[in-house]
Amino acid sequence: PPSLPEYFVVPSSLADQDLKLYSYSFIGRRMPSWSWNHPNGSALVRMANIKDVLQQRRIDQRICNAITRSHPLRSDVYKSDLDKCLPSIQEIQAAYVKLKQLCVNEPFEETEEKWLSSLENTRWLEYIR
Question: Which residues form the Myotubularin phosphatase domain (predicted)?
Fold first, then answer.
């Protein structure tokens, strides 16, 4: 897809043919991409879901093993499913609309005594935290 980066950081233990084969397994053909690294060798790798549930464990394990072998200290991969712990785009947009209404449309003098609770109810601060 045109939104993918031109270059990828790839663990040397993954062969080009593996990457091509695996790319078809990811939703939107979005291969894992290296997003950030720390001087200690830790990395943040973003990875889309794998389409085929039967192949998911094998592909996931192969990629995680390659990432572990690439770490200077051979540290294990820590995975976090951001779909489960972050708000959706729709929730963020709804919170922004509520915040905007609170700040722009409501006269402050009329809502002053409940303004902080109204701000909290938008969930905007929670989401941007």
Answer: 1-129
pLDDT tens track for 41-69:
777 888 888 888 888 888 888 888 888 88
- Do the Cβ atoms of 122 and 98 come closer than 8 Å? yes
Closest CA relative to residue 77, chosen from 100, 105, 47 = 47
Quote the pTM value.
0.56
Residue in 69, 75, 118, 68 with CA at minimum distance from that of residue 95: 118
Identify residue 14 by its one-letter amino acid code: L
Residue 97 CB-half CA count within 13 A: 6
Looking up tokens 């720390």 gives: 38
Kindly give the residue spans of alpha helices, DSSP state H, lying in the chain: 16-23, 53-70, 82-85, 89-100, 108-111, 115-122, 124-128
